[in-house]
Design brief:
The complex is a heterodimer of chains A (249) and B (317).
Chain A: E1 2-6, E2 9-11, E3 33-35, H1 37-51, E4 57-64, H2 69-78, E5 82-87, H3 94-108, E6 112-116, H4 127-135, E7 139-148, E8 152-159, E9 162-169, E10 172-176, H5 188-194, E11 199-203, E12 215-221, E13 230-232, H6 235-245
Helix pairs in contact in A: 2-5, 3-4
Chain B: E1 3-6, H1 17-28, E2 32-38, H2 42-49, E3 54-61, H3 70-80, E4 86-90, H4 93-105, E5 111-114, E6 116-117, E7 122-127, E8 132-138, E9 143-147, E10 163-166, E11 176-183, E12 196-200, H5 210-220, E13 223-226, H6 228-232, E14 253-257, H7 263-266, E15 274-279, E16 292-295, H8 298-311
Parallel strand pairs in B: 1-2, 1-4, 2-3, 3-10, 4-9, 5-9, 12-13, 12-14, 14-15, 15-16
Antiparallel strand pairs in B: 6-7, 7-8
Helix pairs in contact in B: 3-4, 5-8
Classes of the chains: A alpha/beta (249), B alpha/beta (317).
Chain lengths: 249, 317
């Protein structure tokens, strides 16, 4: 089985983001960037499946500017076999991403495509489902457990009401939830080795995909600030405030 | 112009958040048609027909729709999409799973998780876990939108008299099979709609200690939430998780106990009307969003809190 894993470079989840002064977007210059957290789970799962002898090759792919390559290198360092970097500038909407991934899937012919369920920058939660639509493949979104069967997967999905289990035939798309596994760290020797692993480059234009945004981003603002609260001295004061000041109990 | 709204239900009852989505849709266009895909869901069709603002219900009934599988629902939506300018559903795990598959089929760039309708093509949506709000305009002829239900009031469930028409089923998608759903049943109010939510974090130290939270929740008739750290640690099941990738809650009162307040947790609760934080670390970020902060050991504070509540003559339910 061959697994393609899509990874995105985003502002690190611990960074407090800042809105640009002209309200055109978020400041990304000189800000720590990382792999989108659930994409790390996607890579980890692929590596575990390969370690269990159920996959033969893992290909990591990213889409973005030159620096986006870092995320592929990181995936290579934790166990992906080779990488693909599709160069594209600016905001690439999930629809365009899924079209690029479709073009790559048609060339690479993977049995499974893994990715995080959502990117923590735009919070869209669309790409996996869109790719599944374009390929007319089954989709197993928000996966917290994957069991490989003969020609299918049994996937446990985290849904609002609890857990749901579905079976999807291969080939399929899986979007990964944070509880799917515990992503490993790359060791220094593996980071060095990853530098020698093959990494193909191509552009969205080479693949014939127009990445021009469809959605106009009119402005980006800071959300309204909460009024600063107070500290209460003890539980009795807290209950008194909730009862008589806030009037919520 | 008209809106096609995809109903969420369990074949017996409409999920309450559909009412919030109907209200959001009203702000886009007055002509709202609801697509109900299910099996033996006549009671749901009747329920929707009584919702104020709904003009028409397209009811598609087939045994293949007994369980929700996006791959089966999407062809029905596409079949019925003609003539509509907007296709709308809730931005919960139902709609998040469904809508992008619709949008890609229509070659539409979806707008996810709107919190405000500015005009029929322009919307406000949170990005970066709600640390920024983006105003975005869709230029696609058919717009696919998911709505954050807690950002809109529910539409009145009575006062409407929409006509119900039968719609056609599509072919079954054979490559995906529903196996089971483990729904956690509870007598408590639902987390997404509860007036009061009390949440526990890693500070609870064990699943067993959540009984301290449960006792207060019982007293206040509150829903129980949790931080991702508490769910990851196995203290409580995932359906309780509040945050960027869990549930977004907007209760009148949110009580965060032993929760430090990571960015991704704040994303799920900081719009609550009144926030209480109980944490022994006075520097915890949760205090920056709390209206009332109590710097205390939760193992002492929670039993005292219950004791103080017991002293009150009345408690709003």
């Amino acid at each position: 089985m061959k697994i393609l894993v899509a990874v995105k470079r985003v502002i690190d989840y611990n960074v407090q983001i800042r809105v640009k002064d002209d309200n055109s977007g978020i400041v990304t210059e000189n800000v720590k960037m990382s792999t989108n957290p659930p994409d790390d789970n996607a890579i980890e799962e692929a590596v575990k499946i390969k370690e269990a002898g159920k996959a033969t090759e893992i290909v990591a792919i990213t889409i973005g500017d030159d620096k986006a390559q870092e995320t592929v290198r990181k995936a290579l360092a934790v166990g992906a076999d080779r990488g693909i970097h599709v160069k594209a500038e600016g905001i690439i909407e999930p629809l365009a991403v899924s079209k690029i991934l479709k073009a790559v899937v048609e060339k690479e012919k993977p049995d499974l495509v893994f990715m995080g369920k959502q990117a923590i920058d735009d919070d869209c939660n669309q790409t996996g489902q869109m790719l599944a639509a374009l390929l007319n493949w089954p989709q197993a979104t928000f996966a917290s457990k994957i069991e490989i069967k003969d020609k299918s997967l049994e996937v446990t999905r985290e849904v609002d009401e609890g857990l749901e289990t579905i079976e999807v035939n291969v080939p399929a798309i899986v979007t990964c939830d944070l509880r799917l596994n515990e992503p490993r760290y790359a060791s220094l020797p593996n980071i060095m080795k990853a530098k020698k692993k093959p990494l193909d480059q191509m552009s969205a234009t080479d693949l014939g995909i127009d990445t021009k945004p469809r959605i106009e981003q009119i402005k980006v603002e800071e959300p309204p600030k909460r009024k600063a609260g107070i500290k209460v001295a003890n539980v009795a004061e807290l209950v008194n405030k909730l009862k008589n000041e806030a009037k919520v109990i | 112009m008209s809106v096609l709204l995809i109903a969420e239900h369990n074949n017996k009852e409409l999920k309450p958040f559909t009412l919030n989505v109907i209200n959001a849709a009203k702000q886009i266009d007055e002509d709202i048609h609801v697509l109900l895909i299910g099996h033996n869901a006549d009671s749901v069709a009747k329920q929707i027909s009584e919702v104020s603002g709904v003009k028409k219900i397209i009811h598609v009934d087939n045994v293949i729709y007994e369980n929700y599988v996006a791959e089966n629902f999407v062809p029905v939506i596409l079949k019925n999409a003609e003539g509509y300018t907007h296709i709308v559903s809730a931005a919960n795990t139902f709609g998040k799973n469904l809508m992008p598959r619709v949008a890609a089929n229509l070659d539409t760039s979806q707008i996810s998780d709107i919190i405000k309708v500015i005009s029929n093509d322009t919307f406000l949506r949170p990005i970066y876990a709600g640390n920024a709000f983006a105003t975005v305009k869709s230029n696609d002829p058919k717009k696919c939108i998911t709505v954050r239900p807690t950002s809109f009031d529910p539409a009145p469930s009575t006062g409407g008299s929409a006509e119900i028409v039968k719609g056609e089923a599509s072919e079954e998608y054979s490559l995906t099979k529903f196996i089971k759903k483990e729904e956690i049943k509870s007598d408590r109010p639902e987390l997404g709609t509860a007036r009061i939510v009390i949440s526990g974090g890693r500070g609870l130290q064990s699943g067993d200690n959540f009984k301290l939270i449960t006792a207060v929740a019982d007293k206040l008739n509150a829903a129980i939430g949790a931080s991702r750290a508490a769910v990851d640690a196995g203290y409580i099941t995932n359906d309780h998780q509040v945050g960027q990738t869990g549930k977004v809650v907007v209760p009148d009162l949110y009580i965060a106990v032993g929760i430090s307040g990571a960015i991704q947790h704040l994303a799920g609760m900081k719009e609550s009307k009144v926030i209480v934080a109980i944490n022994k670390d006075g520097e915890a970020p949760i205090f920056s969003v709390a209206d009332y902060g109590l710097e205390a050991d939760l193992f002492e504070a929670l039993p005292q809190f219950l004791e103080e509540l017991n002293k009150l003559n009345t408690i709003q339910k």
